[in-house]
Specification:
By secondary structure, this protein is mainly alpha-helical. The chain is built from ten helices and no strands. Helix 6 crosses helix 7. About 4% of the residues have low confidence.
Length: 306
């Protein structure tokens, strides 16, 4: 009986072997096909996504505006404004074509911080007595956004966007980041205020007394060194009729009415935007501190009672 059973077991094993071979072969073929498909399938080039291309154009326009900033306020203001307006367009394109990426979000934020900082640096040189205010605004803007971004990645996870703020943590930041209309108004009017100040540095004798005609007993002297119009055109340009000298003379004759209106209208929103930056900095700091306390508890590093 044992011999019969052994023969039967052998026959059954021989019948199963071809099936197993076929099964293993099909499994191997499926794995090979998947590898071939992964190699043949083209990878997406994130850098060529439409929103990121718009972001590159923003950088180009911002650099062009910086080139014209010292002596060409009209050209600079136009290029700078278009660069800021494209900030809204890249978000629309990202949602329209389903091309929202982490790289695009970081590129957008870095471009915003750099362009605003460069404009504030120029305003610091235009009004040296107020330089500490502009330097403070630059520091607050950079610190609040960096802390907020780092806290989001550290505490919320690498997949969480910095614009996803829970209302329980801060209803102000939640409304600011989730409501697109509110975000656009605050960002646009904040930039508009600084653009208006930039134009006033070329047009308002009240803010830039050096735009006034120099007195006869002190020819060529400026009452406020460091303003854009402080040096006379002849001191900068060899030919007083050159394009640069003519543009500088035309810039000093700008009417200040429109820049004043823009500055007055946008000033309250700009002040509110700075307050939001303060809230963002404080909330991010507290969030990181909560994470530190939790980590210390896990590691058993709680403060010993004395």
């Amino acid at each position: 009986m044992s011999g019969v059973r052994t023969r039967r077991q052998r026959m059954e094993s021989e019948e199963k072997e071809p099936d197993e071979i076929v099964a293993n072969g099909s499994a191997k073929m499926n794995g090979t096909l998947k590898k071939m498909e992964s190699v043949i399938e083209p990878t997406e080039n994130i850098f060529l996504f439409i929103p990121n291309l718009i972001g590159y154009s923003r950088i180009f326009l911002a650099i062009a505006s910086l080139y014209f900033m010292p002596l060409h306020p009209r050209s600079c203001s136009l290029l700078y404004s278009v660069s800021c307006l494209l900030d809204a367009l890249d978000g629309i394109a990202a949602r329209r074509y389903n091309q929202s990426t982490t790289f695009g979000a970081v590129l957008d934020m870095v471009t915003d911080r750099c362009t605003t900082s460069c404009l504030l640096v120029f305003l610091s040189s235009a009004w040296p007595r107020w330089a500490i205010v502009f330097q403070g605004l630059i520091s607050l803007d950079l610190a609040s956004h960096y802390m907020h971004m780092y806290a989001t990645l550290k505490m919320g996870g690498s997949d969480q966007s910095h614009k996803k703020v829970d209302s329980s943590r801060s209803w102000i930041l939640h409304m600011y980041y989730t409501n697109r209309t509110v975000l656009f108004i605050f960002c646009a009017l904040n930039e508009l205020f600084f653009i208006a100040l930039y134009l006033l540095s070329f047009s308002s004798p009240l803010l830039s007394p050096s735009l006034l005609a120099p007195s006869s007993n002190q020819p060529g002297m400026s009452t406020q060194p460091g303003s854009p119009a402080h040096p006379s055109p002849s001191a900068i340009f060899v030919n007083p009729w050159s394009a640069g000298a003519l543009e500088m003379a035309r810039a000093n004759k700008m009417d200040s009415t429109v820049p004043w209106i823009l500055a007055v209208v946008s000033c309250p929103v700009m002040a509110a935007k700075q307050w939001i930056n303060v809230i963002q900095l404080v909330k991010a700091s507290r969030w990181l501190a909560e994470g530190d306390v939790a980590n210390r508890r896990k590691q058993g590093l709680r403060k010993k009672k004395t």
